[in-house]
Amino acid sequence: MKTSVKRLLGVGLTTVMATGMLAACGGGNNTPSGGAQGQAAPGAKPFQGKTLTLVTANHPWGEAIKPLLPKFEEQTGMKVEVQSFFEDQLTQKLTVQFTTGSTTPDVFMYRPLQEGQLFYKNGWVQPLDDYVTKDPSYDFGDFTKAAVSSTTVDKKLAGVPIITEQEILYYRKDLLQKAGIAVPKTMDELVAAVKKLHDPKNEMYGFVARGQRSPLITQVSSFLYSEGADFMKDGKATVNSPEAIKAFSTYADLLKNYGPPGVLNMSWPQAIGIFAQGKVAFYTDANSIYQNATDPSKSTIADKVGFAVFPSGSAGSKPYNITSWGLAMNSKSANKDAAWEFIKWATSKEIVLQTQQKGNPGARMSVWDKPEGTTGFPAELVPVIKESSKGGVDHDRPTVISVGEARDAVGAIVLKAMTGEDIKAAAEQANKELQTIIDKDNSK
Q1: What is the residue range of the signal peptide feature (predicted)?
Q2: What is the per-residue pLDDT for 309?
Q3: Residue 391 has what pLDDT?
């Protein structure tokens, strides 16, 4: 089906963004790390008198951990002061504080694949390799390999995973059943099913995903990997390979020919929003946002949503399997022992179980293996998450310092293809731009 550029550029769904609220700000205790000040009295709590500053994103994990803090404070004797910010505000605040050499915050949430390279290579995070092996009962080997790999920079552990994500396929169970279509297991089957269910005259579209230039990068990544491609290899940009071009073409064609009006303006809130309105048959994105489609207060198809493992391409099913959020320690913190005590507690089996029961997908295999560890997720989604966690790829964007520039450069391939330009020429241009970014970052 032909789709005009004008229709693609139509206005997408409007997303109302809330204004971030800051929790009380507070400075850390600047006494040297290693426990409470002075000689601890017999029976004293190990960090009595310590104040720890924690910065979180305005994220469900942050909301899940806050009610648990009083128990941690009671056990350790330390006071945890929390500040919360929206994602972009969080990055901005941390960058400013770290640039000035601030000793606070002591512990902070961060996005390993967005800021990890920058934060680590600027010396702003404390490597945690020695910490995670101090206490055998912590059982760091319980974390999935892909999740740990996402938080590793230059073979050093820059943070501990707290939220994991995999790309999955969302679909309308009722539409597939009515049409007699099996759940697609391959990319070819997905394309065929999308074509069959696409009915724009009745406001039913075959497929939707992120169409905005930068946001689409994370979701097209699984298309790349499943065709045997990647953004780069051994320091060289590879987005112009035949496998990469095939993946970009598939993604662009699905959006261009079978997507809803305004798809070029859609990031995930708009894309899942129109899926939740019952106007799209298939949608692909992170498993972590499923509640936007299954919550009856947000979705008209809450009881009709199905979940499936990402379809196989020429190289099999290789969705991204990443740590989207981690906990890190400020390298300048004066409370490193206290900071690690908090990270160890917040990522322990007991606490991961409690936060996961609130719908926060963690990285501990043992928690996923417990029936009570999956109660925060739809029963049909659990096996999809488990299967997707077995392999996959540990990044969902180019692993460079200048992530924003790289995402824009590569995202242009899909946009140009959707608006009728030659995709091979677009890929060649993007490859040159990405290589320039890689070389620039390596020279820093």
Answers
A1: 1-23
A2: 98
A3: 87
Spatial distance between the Cα atoms of 355 and 352, rounded to a whole number of angstroms: 5
Looking at the domain 166-320+396-442, which fold is it?
D-Maltodextrin-Binding Protein; domain 2 (3.40.190)
Q: Which residues of 254-265 are buried (b: 16+ CB within 10 A; e: fewer)?
A: bbbbbbbbbbbb
Measured distance CA(439)–CA(236) in Å, rounded: 9
Q: How far apart are CA 130 and CA 171, in angstroms?
A: 44
**CA-based Rg of the chain, rounded to a whole angstrom?**
23
Residue with tokens 């409007």: 14
Would you say the pTM of this structure is higher than 0.85?
A: yes
Q: Which DSSP category does 373 fall into?
A: G
Q: What is the pLDDT of residue 275?
A: 98
Report CA-CA distances (Å) from 411 to 192, 261, 362, 398. 25, 19, 29, 11
Structure tokens at 327: 């906990």
The dihedral built from the CA positions of residue 56, 62, 63 and 67, taken in this order, carries a sign that is negative
Under a CB-based contact definition with an 8 Å cutoff, are residues 185 and 369 in contact?
A: no
SS percent in the chain: helix, strand, coil, step 5: 45, 15, 40
- Residue 313, amino acid: G
Non-local (6+) Cβ contacts of 252 within 8 A are 413, 414, 417, 418, 423
Residue 99 exposure: Cα atoms within 13 Å on the Cβ side: 7
- Taking the chain (444 residues) in consecutive chunks of 10 residues, what is each chunk's mean pLDDT? 43 36 34 36 78 96 97 97 95 96 98 97 98 97 97 98 98 98 98 98 98 98 98 98 98 98 97 98 96 96 98 98 98 98 98 96 97 96 95 96 97 97 98 98 90
User: Which residues, other chains included, contact 292 with Cβ-Cβ below 8 Å and sequence gap of 6+?
Assistant: 269, 272, 273, 276, 298, 299
- For residues 226 and 132, what is the distance between their CA atoms, to the nearest angstrom? 33
Q: Are strands 152-153 and 160-172 parallel, antiparallel or unpaired?
A: unpaired
179: amino acid identity, one letter: A
Q: Which residue has the tokens 């961060």?
A: 110
Residues of the chain with CATH 3.40.190.10: 51-158+322-387, 166-320+396-442
Q: What is the CATH number of domain 51-158+322-387?
A: 3.40.190.10
Give the separation between CA 162 and CA 356, rounded to whole angstroms. Answer: 10
